Amino acid sequence: MPNIQSARKELRKAKKRAILNKMRRDGFKDAIKKAVKAPAADTIRAAQKALDKAAKAGVIKKNTASRRLSRLMKKLAKTTK
Predict the structure, then answer these.
(1) In angstroms, rounded to a whole number, what is the distance separating the alpha carbons of residues 8 and 72?
(2) Is 28 inside any structural domain?
(3) Per-residue H/E/C for 8-73
(4) Phi then psi for 40, rounded to 5 degrees?
(5) What is the value of pTM for the model shown?
(6) I need a labelling partner for 35 at 20 to 30 A (CA). Which of 6, 7, 20, 26 fits?
(7) Range of the domain at 50
(8) Is 75 within the bounds of a domain?
């Protein structure tokens, strides 16, 4: 446990950030699963939005979000054929 006040505050901030990052990560994973399970325009849009928000927040990198979205669209294109 940190003894310095600024270190204690930083620890509190890190815990809050970890919770938010986990929520964002779980959110985009759930959105992708929903889009694969029921491929409709709104579920696909929700998955894209969740991925973009996670990338913007720094939870995942921009290229990772792009790659995941690309793979999702490719998978959905196969199912619609």
Answers:
(1) 41
(2) no
(3) HHHHHHHHHHHHHHHHHHHHHHHHHHHHHHCCCHHHHHHHHHHHHHHHHHCCCCHHHHHHHHHHHH
(4) -125, 165
(5) 0.83
(6) 20
(7) 39-81
(8) yes
Does residue 54 form part of some domain? yes
H or E, element range at 1: none
State whether residue 4 is helix, strand or coil. Answer: coil
* Residue 63, CA distances (Å) to 24, 25, 56 in order: 17, 15, 11
Contact between 57 and 21 under an 8 Å Cβ cutoff? The reply is yes
The answer to whether residue 12 is domain-embedded is no
- Which residues lie closer than 8 Å to 25 by C-beta, 6 or more apart? 54, 59, 60
Number of domains in the chain: 1
